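I have been asked to look over a protein record a colleague put together. Alongside the sequence sits a line of tokens, each denoting a local backbone shape. I have pasted the whole thing underneath without changing anything:
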Amino acid sequence: MFSPDGARILTGSADKTAKLWDAASGKLIASFDHQDVVSNATFSSDGARILTVSADKTARLWDTASGKLIASFGHQDAVNDAAFSPDGFRILTASADKTAKLWDAASGRLIASFDHQDAVFQAAFSPDGSRILTASADKTAKLWDAASRKLVASFDHRDEVMHVAFSPNGSRILTAGWDKTAKLWDAASGKFLTSFEHQEEVFQATFSPDGARILTTSADNTAKLWDAVSGKLIAAFVHQASVYHAAFSLDGTRILTASADNTAKLWDAASGKLIGSFDHKDTVRWAAFSPDGARILTASWDKTAKLWDVATPTELARQVKQSRDETARTGSSSSITDSPMLHVESLSVVASGLEFSDDGSLVAVDEERKSQLTKQLKDLAQDPRPNARFVRWFFSTGGDRSIFPASEVKIAEWVDNTLLTNPNVTEEWVRNALVSSPITHYFI
């Protein structure tokens, strides 16, 4: 996962370690050791501490700066999950020993234990930290009062409950189970609201940042997007094997899915169209956006985590304007040849016919300016330096054009593969999807 500031990356592995990496250089910063598989690792909200989870029956708390162990939290069986409270003062752990436990983060003291009849897969705090939600193989999720430690409500499924989540405002609860459903509940009353159906086990259910939509993942090879109020299906995102994980971008406009088909995929949440695919050599179990949304991190059973640069033109354009304003304030100057940010600004103008005005709004650009920029950029595309890579991709055509800059997959290969692996999809549909894409339409 990314640190809160996006500068560092944390990975957990079957090699019995969690590792901290520098996101810019890719260099290893620190390694955190366990005695068995490390299944999860997370940062505190301020990034100052790291929490790791292991099959060695412990969760461990580490100081991020020094790499030193602060505390260890023990169970009688493998620890499956751990989380910081919103204020960072408490830690919640979930274990195969049929309990979730609440700990004081400073002293490592056990505060409370929450019991199930079978393994506890996950535990989560409500947004305000006052309640605790647990998911168990005993076919229930349970809601607990964090202060009194009393059971508030129990949410039943017909099979193991794998995942739980609070809505952003804490008023609703999502549960996902092996009974092929995700279910929505009222957190105050415990009342069942609606169910979201799949054809196979549901691994995960999560709310969009605004709480208006719900995203589910399943062994039926799909992730599905639902309206949280009506319960109606909005879109389905199809893979060739089980989809284990999905995430919204911070603004809710894009969706990431991770699958056993050895890929993670990026989708437009509004249209449901595929934006990009990120390949591994084995199952991709997890994927996430960086805090600024410009990068994607994928984690795979192929023993790698990979970082991808996938900022959209709009996001980059806003960064350009901010950079341009900063340049104006400092009195420095830059030409289109030596400024990657100006590359992006010019490409954005050529592709869209729009640019940001001084007040931050989008305004139309005349054809003469577009023609001048196009000529300058085409000249720049001949530059072999790495910072011209995006420009070269933008002006590449025919068989040389990849599906997006960070990919080695050519558009023609992607189209052929899509047609071969999706018998219900026509070539016309694929071509239309490419034409509609804000990234690929300019030269298709």
